[in-house]
Structure formats: C-alpha cells, structure tokens
Amino acid sequence: MSKSVDYQGAWQLMMNAGTLALVSHLGPDGDTLGSTLALGEALKRAGKKVILFVDDDIPHTFRFMPGVETYQLPKADVPVPCDLTVVVDASSKDRMGAAEDCLSAPILNIDHHISNTHYADWLLLDPKAAATGEIMYLMFQANGVELTETMALNLYTAIVTDCGFFKYANTTSRCMMAAADLLQYSIQPNEISDLLEMKSRDTIELLAKVLPSMTFYADGRISTMEIPYELYNKEISTDSFIYYPRYIDGVEAAVMFKQVEPNQTRVSMRSRNVDVSAVALSFGGGGHVRAAGCTIGAPLPEAKKRLLEVLIKAVEEA
Ligand code: AMP
Ligand code: MN
Ligand code: MN
C-alpha cells in the first residue's frame, strides 16, 4: 500500500532528491508524455539531474512536444542509479516496462486512474483529475513553481489528450480553468488540435480495411472492431479508430481489438456509463470508468471471446 502525499508532499520528495528518473507508461500518450516533460523541465530548473524513460517508440503525433527527443529507452540489465523514481500517469507497475527492472530507487507515482494498484512507495492520486497533466499543473501552482512556454505547451497537450478537447465526462471546471491559464503562455489551441488530430494516409487506408469488421452484440449495445495480426503495423497509428464503434446510436460500450503479436491482443474500451475499467482490471489492465484497456495473452478470436463474456454481463447488469 502506498503512502498518500499531497501537492506539497510530492514536491518536497522531489526537492530532497538530487537525481530523478521520470518514467512514462508503455504505449505513451499525450498525457503521460506532456506531464513527464513538464515535470522534467520544472525539476531541471530547480537544479536537479533528470533522466526520462519510456519503454516504447514515441508515436509521430507527439514528436512536436518540446523535449520529447530527450527520452531514453530503459534497458532491463543496465541499472540506473538515482535517488527517486517518479512514475507518471501509470496505474500499475508493469506499465513501466523495462524501467521497472533498471530502477531500484523508491517510487513516487503521480496518477489519475481509478484503477491505481498502489504499487508505489508514495502516491499522489486524484481520480477526479481529467489528466495527470491537470494534477501536475495544480502541484506546480501549490508549490509556486513558475511555468515556461514549453511547460505550458506540454501540460496543455496532456490535458486536451485525456479529456478529448473538453468533450469527455472527465471535463470539469477545474480542468478547463487549468487549460485556460495555460493558454496565456502563447499556445494556439487550433495548432495543437491540428497536430493531434492529423492522420497519415496509411491510417485512413487501414481504417478502410478495418471498418468492415464492425460487429454488434447485446442487442446493439456493444460494438467491436478488430485489427488482425496480418493487418497490424506498429508504425500506423490506430488510436482514433475507437471513435467509429463508439459514436453509434444505441451503443453503450465500444471495443477495439488489436492483435499485436500472434498470441497477444491489445484491447481498448470506451463506454457511456458501464464501468469498463473494472472489466479491464479483471484482465490485468486498467483505466477509467469510461475509457480502459488491457492486453490479453491470446490470439484475437480467443481474446475477443473471453472479453465479450465479461463485457456482455457488465452491460446487461447495468
Ligand atoms: P486506450 O484505450 O489505450 O486509449 O486506453 C484507455 C485508458 O485505459 C487509458 O487511461 C490507459 O491508461 C488505460 N489502459 C490502457 N491499457 C492499459 C493496460 N494494459 N493497463 C492499464 N491501463 C491501461
Ligand atoms: Mn495515459
Ligand atoms: Mn492520463
């Protein structure tokens, strides 16, 4: 069980360290990257030595984020000495990838997932925050940390990624207030929106092949789409595909299955009300009530069968 810390407590832990390793989660998104990059910049400005880790390729979409080129790939067998590990936007320890093996310093976890497994020594958790970027912003405010234009750009990107540009149920007045303040640092919201929404032709061509896989279950309350291993290409971003099964009249829960290895299927879920985080958690994943994911160690057809058994029950009981 982690010891809970508040904004001051978390900042104090970091101020007591000389060298800090900051870790973003596997399958990095705008929130984990933006929050980590802004924190890294704040810590460097406070005179700290900072190393950034992410055990994955950084999608092209996020390459515009200032400082993103400073990320290193952790190597399980190359220990990295430091005083404190800060894990950002990751609800369980396995989301660190190989960073889990090369870092042995105590862990501070800053996160907003309701499914957080309390794996860290210290935890700054706020499931009401739309994004970890919002928590990071509030922590900076509470500790009088000055923002720079690049920190603001990274935090704004973190927030809008996770609240879908203020469309999702996690959007609050506090989240909008944070974003409104960040806009004072010469950020052009239309430019960030364009950068995040832009798709490659490869993505749209793959979408055309994948859309016919759309299938409905539970009297149309569940909609699924799938990318079999033959069509899977890790260079092609498919994060936007879940939009299609999700926004269909009568659909309560949408699922995207992606077979990333012959025996491994990545599952993304979105819902209107049903708690898909509980479904994801039962397969070793996690997330939020209305957006969650997991990876199932099975080929796509079997993973789909196993997941639908649980999800259909959840939808029918709701
Ligand atoms: P995604 O469908 O990948 O956009 O993820 C939706 C939400 O579920 C995000 O908040 C993720 O952090 C979370 N999530 C996705 N996959 C996993 C996983 N394997 N383990 C824990 N949380 C996950
Ligand atoms: Mn994330
Ligand atoms: Mn997040």
Question: Could you characterize the architecture of this molecule?
Answer:
With 318 residues, the chain is an alpha/beta fold. The protein folds into two domains: 3-196, Alpha-Beta Complex (inorganic pyrophosphatase (n-terminal core)), CATH 3.90.1640; 201-317, Diaminopimelate Epimerase, Chain A, domain 1 (Roll), CATH 3.10.310.30. The protein is 35% helix and 19% strand. The protein is built from eleven helices and twelve strands. It has helices at residues 7-15, 30-45, 99-102, 132-142, 149-162, 173-182, 189-197, 201-210, 243-246, 276-281, 300-317, and strands at residues 3-4, 19-24, 49-53, 84-88, 107-111, 122-125, 215-217, 222-227, 253-261, 264-271, 286-287, 291-296. It has a six-stranded parallel beta sheet. Strands 7-8-9-10-12-11 form a six-stranded mixed beta sheet. Strand 7 (215-217) and strand 8 (222-227) form a beta hairpin. Helix 2 (30-45) runs antiparallel to helix 5 and helix 4 (132-142) packs antiparallel against helix 5. The longest helix is centred in the last third of the chain and has 18 residues, at 300-317. The protein is globular, with a radius of gyration of 19 Å. The structure holds adenosine monophosphate (AMP) and manganese (II) ion (2 copies). The site of adenosine monophosphate has 14 residues, from strand 11 and strand 12. Adenosine monophosphate binds next to strand 11 and strand 12.
